[in-house]
Amino acid sequence: MAATESTSYVDKLAQLTLEEKIALLSGCDFSTANGVERLGIPKVRVSDSICGIRPSGISGDMTTACFPNTVCYGATWDAELMGRLGEQLAHQARLKNSQVVLGPTINMHRDPRAGRNFECFSEDPLLSGQLAGAIVNGVRRGGVASCPKHFVCNDAETLRHFYDVNEGVDSRTLREIYLAAWQHLLRTSEPDGIMMAYNKVDGKYCSAHDDLISRILRREWGFRGITMSDWFGTKDVVGPVKAGLDLEMPFPVFRGKRLVTAVEAGEVTKGEIDALARRMLELRDRTRECQSSGGPERSEISDEANQLARDIAAGGMVLLKNDNCALPLNVAGVKPKIVLVGEFAKDAVFTGGGSASCTPQYKRSPLDILQEEYRDQPDALRYASGVRTRRYIPEAPTHLLQARNGQPGVDIAFYNNDDSSGKPHLEEHQERPSVWMLGEFKPGLKVPGSRVQISTRLTPDTTGEHTMAVRCTGSFSLTVDEEEVLSGPEVEISTEQFIFNHILLERLTTVSMTAGQSYKVVLTMQGPSKLVAGEPTPYAACLGFERAYSEDAAIEEAAALARDGDVSVVYAGRNEQYESEGFDLPDIRMPENQTRLIRAVAAASAKTILVLHCGNPINVGAVVDEVDAILLAHFPGQEGARAALDILTGKTSPMTIEYAEGIKMGYRAPVEPQRIRWPFGHGLSYTSFQYTDLQVVKDDGSGAGSLRLKCSIRIQNTGMRAGMEVVQMYVTPPESSSNNNCVWRPERELKAFTKVTLGAGESRSVEIEADMKVACSYWEEETTSWRLQAGTYGVLVGGLTAKFEVEKGCSWNHL
C-alpha cells in the first residue's frame, strides 16, 4: 500500500501553504476529506460500514452487498471468516470509490439497551478486539484503509455528544475492559485510522483528549495512523489540535478559517499543523493503490459475496433452545405442514439503523424461499402476518396515491413566503410523499422564509378508521377534502435526532375512509424559522398512512392457521426502526403485541419455533416456556433468510455512564448462575462434543522473555452430524498470593479461542495459546501499571480445568 519515496505525497508537505495544510485537516462533505488540487493531492473518500459499504452522501440509496450485523460477527468466534469479510469489504469499497472503511465498531455491550449494540461485537474485549483485528487485516490486504471506532467509551447513544464517563484513563475499569479491546485490536492489526468518540472521559471530550490520543494511543501503544472526529464531534478549535486529532469531519466547523486565525494568534504552532498534515498525507500514500479513477459508484452482485454473507449469517446464528426434537425440520422427505407467522417472515429483516445500515442488493424473505421449497405442495405452507411490528407509521404507499398528471405519486410545490404572486418557486412530481433536505436546499429557496406543500389524491383499498401520520420539522397543516384533520407546531430537534429518530417528529390521527373512494390530501409545512449553528439545518416533511386493522383479529387468524399445521415458525423481535444509532432502547422487553401473538400461536400449535431478530438482548421470559425452540438470527443481511432456514431444516448445524459496575460487567460480574438464561458463549448444536486430556504448559520458545501460556485439548464429535465448536480458554485468578485479599478478580476471563469443524465421530487435538502477561495480569491503579501476581492460576476449557504456577510477580507500564 505504500508509495515509493519519489512519489510520496508527504514530499509535498513543504510546498503547501498554511491554508492548504489546514484544508487537509477537515472534510469537504459528508463522505470526503479535503485534498489540494493545485498539487495533485487527492481527496479521500470514507464510507460506512462493515455491514455493507454505503454510497457517498448522507441519503444515497444505492444498493450494496449487505452482510449481517456486527454482533452476529462476534457470535461466529471465527477470525478466519472475519478476514475473508475484510477482503470483500475492500472490494466493495473500491466499487464505491472509497479509500477508507469506517469500522469496525468495538465499543462494549455494557448495557443491553444501548441502541448501537448491534454494531458492536460483544461484552468481551479480547473477542471484540481480535475479531475486529481480523477484519482490519482483511481490508488492508484488499488495499483499502480502515478506521475502527469509537475511541473510547461510546457505549450508549442517549446524549452521546454530552455525557461524561467518570473514569480516569488509568482506572482499572477502562484499562481492563474498554481500552483493552483497543489493545487487542492493535496487537493483531494496524488500522490506518481511529475514530474518536463523541463523549467525554473524565471531563474531557475524546476528540480533544491528550491522554487518550497523545499519551496512550501514540506513545504507549505506538499507533501511527490518523485520528479523526466522529461527524460534528469536535467542540473547539485549539484543543483537538493540541491533543493530536488529525481530521475533523464532515466539514470545517472549528477548523478552516478559524484554525488559520488560531495559528496567526500563536494559539497553535505551525509545527503542530505540520504534524497533523503529514499524517493525512501519509494516509494518501498508504491508499494510493485505491485512489478513485473518477468513475461512477456501482453495485455488483457476486456469488462470492453472497456465499460469504450466507456463511457469516449461518456461523453467527445461535440456537438458544431446542426441546421436544423440534429442530431440525424435515423438509427433504414428507414435508411438514408449516405455518409461517409474523411480518418479518414476509418482509425480511436485514440490518439495524443508522450509519451501519445499508440497502441490500436483493430482498428474499423466508416466505419467498419456503414457497420455492413447497412449490409441489403449496397447500402445506400457510402464512399469517400477525401483529404489526413497525415503530412508526410507514410512508403512504405510492400505488394508493395519484398526482395531478394521473401518475402514481404526489405533487410537491416549494414557495418563498415573500413572493406576493402566490406562485410556487419550484414544482416537482415524485413517487414518494416525502421531502428530505439537510443543509442543502432547493436552488433559490429561502431558508428561513419558505414553505412546502405535498398534495395528492389518496384512494384506500379497504374501508375503516385509517391512520394518517405527519413527520414534519416545521409547523404544518394536513387537510383531507379541504378539512383540516391534523396540525402541529415546529419541532425543536437536533440534526442527529432528525437523521436517526424519526418518531420524534411524528404526529398522527385517524380518518374514516371508504375503499375505492378518492380523497384530496394536502400537507403544508413551513420551513425552518432559523438556521442551526454549526450543523446542517433539517427541512423535511413526510406523509404517512396505515390501513385500519384489528390486532385481536390478526392474532386469532394466526392461531387458527396454527391449529391446522404440524409446526409454526414465528418470526419476531426488532428491526432497524427499534435498534439504531442515535438513541437507546427504553427497555429490552419483547413488544407486548408480539408477546400476545407468540403465546396465542404456541397455545394452538403442535410445535412452535421462534426466530428472533435483534442486535440487543430481548427478554423472552413471557414466552420462553411456551415455545419449543428459539433461534437467535440477529440482523442477518441479504442472505440471512436462507441461512436461518438452512439451520431450521438441518442443512447447516448451529454452533455452540459512570461505570459504577467497574470491571464487573457482563459475564465477569458475580451474579448467581440462575439469573442468566443464556450466558456469554452459550449455543446449542445438532450434535455433541466431548473434551478430554487438557494439558497446560508455559513456554518461552522465543527466548526473548515473551512467556506463552499454551493449552492443548482433545475434542471429539460424539454425535451423528458434522458440526462446529468454539473452543474457549478462560483463565481464573490465583488461589493464593500476598495481595489476593485486596484485589478483586473476575471468576474467569476469556483469554483465547478458536473454532473447529469436526465430522461425525471425528476427534482432533486442538492447541490455543496466549501471552502470559496478557492472560494473567490486572491493572493496578495505585501504580498505573499492569501487575502479574504470583500464585496458582486455573484454566477452563470445555468444562475441564487445569492449573499452572506463576512463581514470581512483576509489573510493567505497557502490555
TrEMBL record:
It catalyses: Hydrolysis of terminal, non-reducing beta-D-glucosyl residues with release of beta-D-glucose. The keyword Hydrolase applies. It comes from Apiospora kogelbergensis. Residues 405-559 form the PA14 domain. Pfam families: Fn3-like, Glyco_hydro_3, Glyco_hydro_3_C, PA14. SUPFAM superfamilies: (Trans)glycosidases (SSF51445), Anthrax protective antigen (SSF56988), Beta-D-glucan exohydrolase, C-terminal domain (SSF52279). Keywords: Carbohydrate metabolism, Glycoprotein, Glycosidase, Hydrolase, Polysaccharide degradation. It is an enzyme of class 3 (hydrolase). The lineage of its organism: Eukaryota, Fungi, Dikarya, Ascomycota, Pezizomycotina. It comes from the Eukaryota. This is beta-glucosidase. InterPro entries: Cellulose_deg_GH3, Fn3-like, GH, Glyco_hydro_3_AS, Glyco_hydro_3_C, Glyco_hydro_3_C_sf, Glyco_hydro_3_N, Glyco_hydro_3_N_sf. Transmembrane segments: none annotated. Pathway: Glycan metabolism; cellulose degradation.
